Fold each of these.
Amino acid sequence: MIKESRYKRPDVRIDYVGASLLAIVLGMFVFGLSQGPVWGWSSISVVTMFVISALLVVPLALYEFRYTKAGGEAILNFRLLSQRNVMVTNLAIAISGMGMFLAMQALTYRFELPAPDGLGKSILATGLSLGSLAIGMIIFAPITGQLISRVGVKPFAILGSVIAAAGFLMQAFAPSYTMVMVYEFVTGSGLSMLNASVINYLILTVHPKDMGLATGMNGTFRNVGSAIGAPTAGSLLSTFTATYTVGYIGTHPIREVLPSQTAFYYAFIIAAVTFVAGLIIIYFGEEVLGRKSKMETEKRVYEVEYQTK
């Protein structure tokens, strides 16, 4: 049974302005990504959307900073983001989330598209083929949960990033369906370690009364990454194409323009790079469990007790 939190703040208002600004920033950027292969990356429309998206980041940041300073619960809360581990976890989850959704989108297309660059699977077979990823998560998530309190959060976060990056890197060179399934399992095991570590990094850093806000903001950063990752994959698959013969009507070949092997290669390489970038960010976080965190934990406990007196 899940116990209700004793920290309740019914007077908190939703940050509608911040949410709207963030939606516009992401919407313009994602729309530009999706239309780049169609309209041309140097077209005025696409460049304009990217420029507007970048410029709107400034008023978004200023508004959220002032909203936080005034005591509001901003969607991008700078009071929490000023804590190292909160910033580290949010940046890491946004970047790795982008890489994960980018790779998953590309992997789904790879399963369904016909040979030679696809695996020619049905929709049902594609869904079942992603089970290897889930099995890796199911096996290693409880193992990570049992060991993380003794070993620490940081080692598992780094290890998970390394394994996930290796899995996506191997996907770029996977020679057969069997090896794709094996590399999926590797990736799933790394993702389970990373996800379990990141959430512990976050909730063991913030005060219990801020836990809901911190996890909600973490979800926002995760959604930002996924919102960028999926259209990035679509953009790559639309940009790097080749013409294939997919059948015949009598003696006349039926040709279609489909994503090439180059598109899948770049998608998985970029995904691997994002997890390496996440690893570098995680390296700057402070340990919150294990032996190395003992002094820091005692310090935080003392500070909390001092503030409550």
Note: The longest strand covers residues 241-249.
Amino acid sequence: MDLIAALRSFVRVAQTGSFSAVATERGVTQPAISRQVSALEDYLGARLVHRSTQAVTLTEEGRELLLPAQRLIDDAEDLPFNVGARRGRPAGRVRIALPVPLGLYLSSHLAPFLASYEGISVDLVLRDGVSNLIEEGLDCEIRLGPLEDSTLVARTIGQTKAYLVASPGYLEQHQPPAHPRDLEQHDCIFYQRWGRENVWWFSTPPAPGDVAGQDLAISVSGRIHSNNAGAVYRAALAGQGIALLSHLLVAEDLAAGRLLHVMPDYPTRRFPIHVVYPSKRSLPPRTRALIDYISGLLEDDPDMAMDAASPVRR
């Protein structure tokens, strides 16, 4: 029996509650994963999981094994880099979930990191929503806005920058909004960012009827919405409506005139960018190295760096 492989399967079964889900991840059959866990039970002389047609749950012995098993897996992955010429260098795979715009940005900026850490590989899981780190086997996740899960360790590494944009064609056919409330008369294209997907936040300038510096929440509507920022971006380029999108997606299009900045006098609300990871597990060096690298990337970008002159809303 390959002990480390069996432990890996056991940990993922514990996290997902499913032999089939782990088999799909690994590209093998469900019985193959079940046999690995059974072999581990025989090796340890203890039942680790309760099997039923509805779910797989851990026994008391399985719960006791979970954290030591994860530590053994981490140690095994780091072992080649604790001896010889590669001694002391972080190694292994890092699974990180990110919002789509930031994930696309990071994918084109990973070369220096991978060159510095030859033993690390990176799995990018791109989604505009919140993940379950344990069930999905994620080492960490980048999240936007206020955090609700108190069981996670969080580190603030930057702040968001988004623009309200539309194509020239759309604005030629529709009266450009002069105030955020005018958006109620427009086709808005929206996706899940933080909070309610159809509520956009703005800061009010000093003008009659508004108090400078206050936040203004506007409920928008439209015929297109998505769970992916990339789809919203393409719909905005095609002239389907007004969208609120990260500067990472639209900066080049704004410069080229393919998109136009709508209502620049009403800056969109900025939110903190956090990296979160499980609090009950020590942070492996490889994960810390990637977090530090991403933090440095954001710090080097004036639109995402933490800046006292541009406070984020917590």
Note: The chain has three domains: 3-80, 89-158+271-300, 162-261.
Amino acid sequence: MTDALPSTLLPILRDALPHADIEACTPIGEGWNVTAWRLPDPGGDWAVRLPRNAAAVPEIERQTCWCRALEAEGLAVPRDARNLLGAGGQTVAGLYRYVDGAPAARSRNRGRRRDRLARDTADFVTRLHCVPPGRITACEPHTYSPWADHYGPLVSKYAPALGPAARAWVEAVGARLETASRGAPPAVPVHGDLHPAHLLVDDGGALVAVIDPSGPQVADPALEFGRLVRQYGAPFADQVLRHYGGDVDAHFAERARLYAALEPLRAVWLGMTRGRPEAATYGRRALAASAVAASRAAQ
């Protein structure tokens, strides 16, 4: 399917990977910023990640750096990451060894597989959060306070555009998050997007690699668990937390749930700033549904 790859990329791929079978390259999928392809190679297949927009180029460069740094720390991330450069020295794609694993789908997250994934995920985030931030400085991580630098401004800017009930609920959740954020543990390297598609497992359910970090970021470790709450539910996030070996303060689990609750507000922001109105619509509807559910639960 080389006809779907940019023609200017083909000679660069052939020069960089002379033994790869360019003609057999097949698509893997696409996200907000990247389209991914699998490129067969006798020495081990590659994942080729092509930027979909200008903002994706520095993101690919930072993620390549993140993978290289964490591979050196022995974490389960894609191997041999590097950037593919054009004639002018600019990054035209990201490369890393293809990971032969399947997404850790929620539908299969039961019984022993669930226990295995919880332990493996806890081990990964524990080891990640123990990496000194200085070791990923070259990756230009986004270092921030989730409430003060992200969720607080989102609540101030986008809550007024919601319906009355959703606005009141979002502002109340924001006030709780502001309180729970006082005395949070020191910021650590975080993945930031523990989505099922980014947790790759083998046939037995063992975690083989974690891909596609958001950022990278240095922030509150509870962010990881907020993403797990949103993607897998609070019981699974709590199960992972029981095996977690990092610093846990008194409001850690509460912050995780509050980050999860406000996740649709990020969809509103992304939709409005990146020209994806369907994402903004989803976010508004999800927040309205949460407000209704909270009202019913309080009756």
Note: The mean pLDDT is 94.
